[in-house]
Amino acid sequence: MSVPRHMTLDPEVAPARVAAASGELAALVATPPDDARRRPGVLAVPGYTGSKEDFLHLLPLLARAGHPATAIDLRGQYESGGPEDESAYTIAALAEDVASLLSAGEPLHVIGHSFGGLICRHAVLAGAPARSLTLLASGPAALGGNRAAMIELMRPLLAEGGVPKVWEAAGGTNGTPDVPADVQDFLQRRFLASPAAALLGMGEALLNAEDRVDELRALGLPTFVLHGAGDDAWLPEQQRAMAERLDARYLELDGALHSPAVETPQATADALLDFWQPLDSG
After folding, report:
1. Low-confidence residues in the chain, pLDDT < 50
2. pLDDT at residue 172, rounded to an integer
3. Contact 191, 49 (CB under 8 A)
4. What pLDDT score was predicted for residue 170?
5. pLDDT at 103 (0 to 100)
6. Could you tell me the CA-to-CA distances from 28 to 36, 60, 75, 79, 245 in Å, in that order?
7. pLDDT, tens digit (0-9, with 9 covering 90-100), for 85-130
8. Does residue 132 contact residue 154 with C-beta atoms inside 8 Å?
9. Distance (Å, rounded) from C-alpha 266 to C-alpha 129?
10. DSSP codes, 112-156
11. What pLDDT, on the 0 to 100 scale, is given for residue 171?
12. Which of 215, 235, 196, 224 lies closest to 89 in space, CA to CA?
């Protein structure tokens, strides 16, 4: 899970609710300052066990560069809520919400973090309009390795004691002793707010995601593969190979692991702005 450095909202950022296909979703909306040259908007979509706060430090940087930027809690995440129905949390079902947001106005730059990248990819392949797609610490298909094994371990724990049992078994915030108290409180509230069905459904989707890289390349959408040098979800070599298959822009960020938007927000913003600038000037 992504761990913000603090919970303070910058002046450009405010909480909001946005209308999506399944109903209202919780969001953070960043508005450019009055003196900034207005540029195309941005939609940021978090990954598994994530939330809009995964982009808390990135949003104001994008807004100051002129990009109105919105980050959402997917259905079943933190303040969006969701049903106890695993079928509501497939990639296709979640992509319907993303597609509805992308279809509501002018084409946006889309950022999908981790599992969010698979959802955004599905949305654009289904016809949702976008100016570009950034796959941030995301991969070509199903998640493997230790993170996949952890998802497998969750199912019996959820059956035994629900979401609190999973939080307890994972050690709560014991593994984040240097994190401020308000951030630790947030991490616990966010995790416990997840319906058990959301953890199960999204987890199942992550473990069984299909490789749709060739379809995305054929779409011709400008795409950026961006990740941390220490990513331990989809490994750097997997993401590099995906970028080559996509003929996409590619960058590995030093000093970042699986959550560049909170670990190296300025470098992440600089990379995104450099990618978008020629797309917006044409």
Report:
1. none
2. 75
3. yes
4. 83
5. 96
6. 19, 10, 15, 11, 33
7. 999 999 999 999 999 999 999 999 999 999 999 999 999 999 999 9
8. no
9. 27
10. EETHHHHHHHHHHHTT---SEEEEES--SS---HHHHHHHHHHHH
11. 83
12. 196
3-class DSSP state for residue 213? helix
Report d(CA 39, CA 107) in Å as an integer: 11
Tokens 């889309």 found at? 110
How far is Cα 221 from Cα 93, in angstroms, rounded to an integer?
22
CA distance linking residue 269 with residue 10, whole number of Å: 15
The type of residue at 35 is D
Whole-angstrom distance, CA of residue 66 vs CA of residue 32: 5
Asked if 121 contacts 115 with a C-beta cutoff of 8 angstroms, the reply is: no
Q: Which of 12, 43, 49 is nearest to 27 (CA)?
A: 43
Distance CA 83, CA 74 (A): 12
Beta bridge partners of 246: none
- Give SS3 for 164: helix
Sheet strand arrangement including 23-30? 13-20, 23-30, 69-72, 42-45, 109-113, 132-136, 223-228, 249-253
Residue 30 and residue 97 in contact, taking contact as beta carbons nearer than 8 Å: no
| Amino acid of residue 50 | G
- The contacts of residue 72 (CB under 8 Å, 6+ apart) are 18, 20, 25, 26, 27, 43, 44, 45, 46, 52, 80, 97, 101
Tell me the one-letter amino acid at 8. T
Residue 229, amino acid? A
Q: What pLDDT score was predicted for residue 104?
A: 93
Question: Residue 180 half-sphere exposure, CB side, CA atoms within 13 Å?
Answer: 8
User: Can you give the pLDDT at residue 148?
Assistant: 94
